Amino acid sequence: MAMQKFAVTPGFEVGGTLFRPDQLAVLGSIVGEDARIEMTTFKQLYVEMDEERVEEAKAKLEAAGLEVHPAGFVSKSLITCNFCRGAEDSGLDVAKMLDEAIADHPVPNPLKIGYAGCALGTSEPLLKDIAVIKMRNTYDIYVGGEPRGLKASLAKQLHADLTPEQLAPIILKLIAIYQEHGKKKEKFSRFVERMTLDHLRQSTLAERMDTAG
C-alpha cells in the first residue's frame, strides 16, 4: 500500500493554534486506524495514509473546518502566539492575512515563519526563519533564527516600523529570493548568512516603498 503525507492545522484564534478535542476526534475518524499521525515542531500534525484515500480525506477534513497543507519542503503555516492581549491588540486579523499569503510555497528547505502579537514574544519568534513582531501600532520583521545545534542564534532585524500592508509583500519577496538563490536543503539561517542581511534588506526595499502608507 503506497502512503502519502500531508499536514493538518486547526487554524488559529485567541488562545493560539490549538486542536480542540472534537477536531482531533474528527481527524481520527476520517483518516482511519491505519494512518500515522506525527506531531511537528511547527504546530502542524503530519498525517501519512493510503494515497488512494488522501483526496477524499482532505475534502472531509476541510469540510470539518480543519486546514490541510502540503508536507515537506514548503513554507509552513504561520506559527503564532496565543493572542493573549486580545484579537485586536495582538493583530489576529493581520496574522490570518499573513497565514493565507505565506503558507505552502515550495522552498529549498522547510521554512518556519513566526508571529508574536507583542514584544514579549511568547511564541519564540526570534528562533524562527522569519519572524513578525507587533510593536504597538507597527510591525518588525526579523530573519535567520536558528533554534538548534551549537550555533543556535536569534533572528536579526530586517525592517522595523512596518504597516500591516507591507508585511506580506516583503515576506513573499524573501521567499522568492530563497526559491531562486537557496541551495537544496540549505537552512534559511545559513542562506541569510550567505546572502547577508544588508543584501536582503536592500532586495526588499521596493516592497516596503511600494506599500508604504
UniProtKB/TrEMBL annotation:
> Looking at the record's lineage, which domain of life comes first?
Bacteria
- Residue ranges constituting the Nitrite/sulphite reductase 4Fe-4S domain according to the UniProt record: 98-209
Keyword field: Iron, Iron-sulfur, Metal-binding
Give the GO molecular function terms: heme binding; iron-sulfur cluster binding; metal ion binding; oxidoreductase activity
Under InterPro entries, the record lists: NO2/SO3_Rdtase_4Fe4S_dom, NO2/SO3_Rdtase_4Fe4S_sf
Q: Name one Pfam family in it.
A: NIR_SIR
- Can you name this protein? Nitrite reductase
Source organism (scientific name):
Paenibacillus lautus
Q: What is the lineage of its organism?
A: Bacteria, Bacillati, Bacillota, Bacilli, Bacillales
